[in-house]
Every structure is written in C-alpha cells, then in structure tokens.
Write a structure and sequence with these properties.
By secondary structure, the protein is α/β, with parallel strands linked by helices. It has ten helices and ten strands. The strands form two sheets. Strands 3-2-4-1-5 form a five-stranded parallel β-sheet, sandwiched between helices. Strands 6-7-10-8-9 form a five-stranded mixed β-sheet, with helices on both faces. Helix 2 links the parallel strand 2 and strand 3 (62-64). It is elongated and about 75 Å long. The N and C termini lie far apart (64 Å). It binds S-adenosylmethionine.
C-alpha cells in the first residue's frame, strides 16, 4: 500500500496540468499559478504550448515529453524530482494521459514515491458527454479506435454488448467510415458527434447510426458518442451458427468470429467451433 497526502509533505511534485481544448479562457487560475511556480514544464509539442504559456505570461524552461522519447525524458524528469525540483506536464489540449502521453511517466514517478498531483480543467470527453443527451453514466471511454478497418470492426465487436454509453475520440476524415462500421456491427443506435467544443464553430449533431452514416465530410476535432446496447444476449435470439455467420459478414475471419461468439456466450472456442462446424455441415447436406 502507498498513501500520498499530496499537500501534507515536502516531497517534490509532478503536476499534471489540464489546458484548454480550444478556448483559451478555459485555463484555470490554479493551472496558471502552478505553471508559474514549477521549475520546469514538459509539453507534448513545445510550439503549441509556447502559445498558451506566452498568452498567460508564463516563462519557464519548456521541454518536450512525448511517446517517442518517454523513456529518456522520464529519467530526466525523475532526476529533476530527485533534485527537489517541481515539474509540470501538459499536453496540447485537455488532460495529459487522456489519449495523450504521460502514463509511462507517472508509473515511474509513483514508483519512486514522489507526489503526482492533477490540476483539473478542460477535457473533450466530459465536455461532449454532458451535452450529448445520452445517459451520462455509466460510460466507457475508449479513446481512438484503430486506424485499420479490420481491427476497428474487431474492437467494435468487443464493445457491441456493452450497455453503457460509449465515447470515442475521432478524426474528421474517418468519422463517417467509423459510423458506417458502427451501423454494420451494432445495428441501429443513437449516435452523437460533438465537434469543435468550446470553439467558435462548436456543433452537436444528434442522430442515429443510420441517419449519420452518410454525413458530409466534417471538419475539426470531434468526440463520437454511441448509446449502449439495450438488448441482452438472450434477446438476440440467434443460433450459434447464425451469430458466427453474422460476425463473418461483418468482416471478421472465421477464427475471430468463433472467438467472439465464445466470449459473448461464455463458452469455450472449441464448443463454438464444434457447434458451428456441425451445424454448417448439416446445412450443406440439406442443400
Ligand atoms: N487530452 C485530451 C483530452 O483530455 O480531452 C485529448 C487529446 S486527443 C490527442 C485529441 C482528440 O480529443 C481529438 O482528436 C478529438 O477527438 C478530441 N478533442 C480535443 N479537443 C476537442 C474539441 N475542442 N472538440 C471536440 N473534440 C476534441
């Protein structure tokens, strides 16, 4: 067990500071004060962060921390902490760690018993969720789906039975394709796109996987939210063979289709394989 009493010790601290997701006024007083007080700031992209810091008159040494240099930079940050310096980590927008770098670093910092303190502020998923009109809890935040369509569909298959609201980060050039995939894999669901949140062209598009699947190309940053599955497994009323076939039609290999059905029905892969194989053979004999 490790207990961190954040403000009742003299240990050096790594601050995870949330920054605006578009509207500079969403910077908190506390975030500005902390960034002015630390010895060094690490940022995902120093050019992006430089603009924010100069807007708030913050002049502190600024260095990069991103996924490609996380090991070297984590060592460097640990060294600052060991020398009793306080460090802040910021990302381009919103919270560090949330679909952004930082997780590797905080594991190391926790391991060495320094403080890790979060300075709250703007964040895209919660800002989108509360205006969506979808049930706000429970929810699953998934972050970005895979770039490759095959993998993306497989990820969606795994999420298909979840009854909670699903939240994804999406890029503008891929969102229509993703909604088409959602329609193929989930069927009809309520879908909401929250675009350019906190910015001049903020827009919330509420519809369904059917009505939004042929949307014109959208620009800007967006959060994609999907209503949870209201159907329980029993209500699906499909045989194992039908379900495996449906998964194959949705783009899974037969191996993955069988694996998915086994997972959903709490069976072994072998059970599903036997059932599928036997039913398929019977089907063929009948034809
Ligand atoms: N760390 C950030 C956070 O706490 O929300 C998320 C960073 S992630 C790399 C960037 C993604 O967040 C974008 O591709 C988009 O999906 C979402 N996002 C960021 N800003 C947004 C905004 N103003 N409106 C809608 N979505 C936004």
């Amino acid at each position: 067990m490790k207990r961190q009493k954040s403000f009742q010790n003299d240990l050096p601290t790594l601050y995870l500071v949330a920054t605006p997701i578009g509207n500079l006024e969403d910077m908190t007083f506390r975030a500005v004060n902390i960034l002015k007080s630390v010895d060094i700031i690490y940022a995902e992209d120093t050019r992006v962060s430089h603009k924010l810091l100069s807007h708030y008159d913050i002049s502190k040494p600024l260095k990069t921390y991103h996924d490609f240099n996380k090991e070297v930079k984590s060592n460097e940050i640990l060294q600052h902490l060991r020398e009793h310096q306080n460090v802040a980590l910021i990302s381009d927008a919103g919270y560090p760690l949330i679909s952004d770098p930082g997780y590797f670093l905080i594991r190391e910092v926790i391991e060495e018993d320094f403080n890790v303190v979060s300075i709250p502020g703007a964040n895209a998923l919660l800002t989108g969720l509360v205006v969506s009109g979808l049930p706000p809890q429970p929810f699953t935040f998934y972050g970005f789906l895979d770039n490759k369509e095959g993998k993306r569909k497989k990820q969606l298959m795994e999420l298909k039975d979840k009854t909670e609201t699903l939240i994804f980060y999406e890029s503008p050039h891929r969102v229509t394709k993703t909604i088409q995939n959602i329609h193929q894999v989930f069927g009809l669901r309520d879908v909401v796109i929250a675009r350019e949140l906190t910015k001049k062209f903020e827009e919330v598009i509420r519809g369904t996987s059917e009505s939004l699947k042929d949307l014109e190309e959208l620009k800007g940053e967006m959060v994609l939210m999907v209503a949870g599955n209201k159907n329980s497994i029993e209500e699906l009323d499909m045989s194992i063979l039908e379900e495996v076939k449906m998964n194959i039609e949705n783009g899974l290999s037969s191996k993955d289709a069988i694996k998915e059905v086994a997972r959903r029905r709490n069976l072994t892969k072998n059970d599903v394989y036997q059932e599928y194989h036997n039913a398929d053979m019977t089907d063929e004999r009948r034809q």
